[in-house]
């Protein structure tokens, strides 16, 4: 099969005289293996970050993430030699859709624990 995952992105900007409207249109991507992980994980503030539970997903592909906290931000990234390196920041209530470049994503909360809702689809 092909095109098992589809999504559409849209952004609207209106800030004084600055405006923009973007739509990706429908984007379809292939998924080689029918696996996914769906989880709400409590993310702490440890300097090294915290590994996201990946369940049966071994090769991460498209990810949808949402910070459920209403006060604190959370960063998503990877661990290199025990050091956390962020590549994504979600402020309170924000969501993101991306294709992960690592199959071992980590996350780290800012000031206090946050709940991170995520879905990661096998590539």
If you had to describe this structure to a student in words, what would you say it looks like?
- By secondary structure, this protein is mainly β.
- The protein has one domain (31-122): Jelly Rolls (Sandwich), CATH 2.60.120.
- Helix content is 0%, strand content 56%.
- It contains no helices and twelve strands.
- A hairpin with a 2-residue loop joins strand 8 (74-80) and strand 9.
- It is flat, with a radius of gyration of 16 Å.
What is the secondary structure topology, with strand pairs?
Elements: E1 5-7, E2 10-15, E3 18-23, E4 27-29, E5 36-43, E6 50-51, E7 60-67, E8 74-80, E9 83-90, E10 95-99, E11 106-109, E12 114-122
Antiparallel strand pairs: 1-4, 2-3, 5-12, 6-11, 7-10, 7-12, 8-9, 8-11
Say what the CATH topology is: Jelly Rolls
Report strand order across the widest sheet: 5-12-7-10
Low-confidence stretches: none
Terminal-residue CA separation: 13 Å
Strand content: over 45%
Q: Main beta sheet, described?
A: 4 strands, antiparallel
Question: Helicity level, as a percent range?
Answer: under 10%
Number of domains: 1
Structural class: mainly beta
Average pLDDT reading:
96
The string of secondary-structure elements, in order, is EEEEEEEEEEEE
């Amino acid at each position: 099969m092909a095109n098992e995952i589809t999504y559409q992105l849209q952004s609207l900007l209106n800030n004084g005289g600055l405006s923009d409207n973007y739509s990706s249109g429908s984007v379809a991507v292939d998924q080689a293996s029918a696996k996914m992980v769906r989880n709400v994980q409590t993310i702490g503030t440890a300097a090294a970050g915290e590994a996201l539970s990946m369940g049966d997903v071994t090769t991460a592909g498209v990810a949808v993430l949402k910070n459920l906290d209403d006060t604190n931000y959370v960063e998503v990234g990877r661990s290199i030699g025990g050091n956390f390196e962020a590549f994504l920041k979600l402020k309170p209530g924000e969501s993101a859709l991306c294709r992960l470049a690592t199959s071992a994503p980590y996350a780290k909360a800012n000031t206090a624990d946050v709940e991170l809702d995520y879905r990661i689809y096998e590539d």
